[in-house]
């Protein structure tokens, strides 16, 4: 399964990073940093309307290279100018061609919160996210146990960040709720085989109380898709490949925002 492979390479990468910089050194570095914008992000999601998290992504396991030209700072700037509420940055290098320095540079240049999009499997990676400017991390229910979901979320919050706890199945939504997640993501992509079912998020939305912000992830392509998700009561959308393939990213974001106006 693709998810198993992703976890395997992440473990190897984690070991390399730990050899280059100890956890203690990383913690000391982080202790000198100011709080990020995590709390502001949660407040934003609780405001009326459908909010947009735009993703900076060069490749994926299922599609390979999505773009050959990758001016990541320019892309992030176009997202910000179009009025997105957060920017998601892939930092997984093997399958997504991501890198931590993309996150760091975008975070330094952007005034909107940034999400470290990666396969977080250890507290070390949460400190890394903070050290490189992230305001938000992703916790994937499928690769973490119940105790890790709670511990990692609380660690992120103690560092001034928030966690999007991502689920794909009804059981995973139940586990996310049990962990007292403050933000839940419902992925339309099955990470075991990377097949996308747009209706997955629509099927599971009812399980989550209205006071918990919910993010729809993956497979969002058209204004019609956006309208369906707004009607279903989602608080935010995470959109990656559709924006990355577009030559008119800012215009596409505006089109999506217009599709949500009647739901504010």
Produce the secondary structure layout.
Elements: H1 2-20, H2 23-31, H3 38-45, E1 51-56, E2 59-60, E3 64-65, H4 72-81, E4 86-90, H5 93-96, H6 100-109, E5 114-117, H7 123-131, E6 136-140, H8 146-158, E7 162-167, H9 170-178, E8 184-187, H10 199-204, E9 214-217, H11 223-231, E10 236-239, H12 241-244, H13 249-259
Parallel strand pairs: 1-4, 1-10, 4-5, 5-6, 6-7, 7-8, 8-9, 9-10
Antiparallel strand pairs: 2-3
Helix pairs in contact: 2-7, 4-6
Notable features of this structure?
alpha/beta, globular, TIM Barrel, two-stranded antiparallel ribbon
Gyration radius (Cα, Å) is 17 Å
CATH topology tier name: TIM Barrel
CATH class: Alpha Beta
Strand content: 15-25%
Biggest sheet, in brief? 8 strands, parallel, barrel
Count of spatially separate domains? 1
Strand order in the sheet with the most strands: 1-4-5-6-7-8-9-10
**Which runs of at least 5 residues are low in confidence (pLDDT < 50)?**
none
Spell the H/E element sequence: HHHEEEHEHHEHEHEHEHEHEHH
CATH superfamily membership, which one?
Aldolase class I
- The percent range for helix content is 40-55%
CATH architecture: Alpha-Beta Barrel
* Count of runs of 4 or more consecutive helical residues: 13
How far apart are the first and last residues' alpha carbons, in Å? Answer: 40 Å
Number of strands: 10
User: Quick one: overall form?
Assistant: globular
Description:
By secondary structure, the protein is an alpha/beta fold. The protein has a single domain, classed as Alpha-Beta Barrel (TIM Barrel), CATH 3.20.20. The protein has 13 helices and ten strands. The chain has helices at residues 2-20, 23-31, 38-45, 72-81, 93-96, 100-109, 123-131, 146-158, 170-178, 199-204, 223-231, 241-244, 249-259; strands at residues 51-56, 59-60, 64-65, 86-90, 114-117, 136-140, 162-167, 184-187, 214-217, 236-239. An eight-stranded parallel barrel has the order 1-4-5-6-7-8-9-10, surrounded by five helices. The chain has a two-stranded antiparallel sheet with strand order 2-3. The chain is globular and about 50 Å long. The mean pLDDT is 94.
């Amino acid at each position: 399964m693709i998810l198993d492979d992703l976890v395997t390479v992440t473990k190897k990468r984690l070991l390399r990073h730990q050899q280059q910089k100890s956890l203690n050194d990383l913690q000391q570095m982080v202790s000198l940093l100011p709080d990020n914008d995590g709390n502001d992000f949660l407040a934003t999601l609780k405001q009326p309307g459908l909010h947009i998290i735009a993703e900076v992504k060069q490749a994926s396991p299922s599609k390979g290279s999505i773009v050959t030209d990758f001016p990541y700072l320019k892309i992030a700037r176009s997202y910000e100018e179009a009025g997105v509420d957060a920017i998601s940055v892939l930092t997984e290098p093997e399958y997504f061609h991501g890198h931590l320095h993309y996150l760091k540079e975008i975070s330094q240049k952007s005034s909107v919160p940034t999400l470290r999009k990666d396969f977080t499997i250890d507290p070390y990676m949460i400190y890394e996210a903070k050290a490189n400017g992230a305001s938000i991390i992703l916790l994937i229910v499928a690769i973490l146990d119940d105790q890790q979901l709670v511990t990692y979320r609380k660690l992120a919050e103690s560092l001034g960040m928030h966690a999007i706890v991502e689920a794909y199945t009804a059981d995973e939504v139940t586990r996310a709720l049990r962990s007292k997640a403050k933000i839940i993501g419902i992925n339309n992509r099955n990470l075991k085989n990377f097949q996308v079912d747009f209706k997955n998020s629509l099927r599971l939305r009812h399980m989550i109380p209205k006071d918990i912000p919910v993010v729809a992830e993956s497979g969002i392509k058209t204004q019609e898709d956006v309208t369906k998700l707004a009607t279903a009561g989602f608080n935010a959308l995470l959109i990656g490949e559709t924006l990355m393939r577009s030559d008119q990213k800012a215009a596409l974001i505006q089109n999506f925002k217009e599709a949500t106006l009647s739901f504010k």
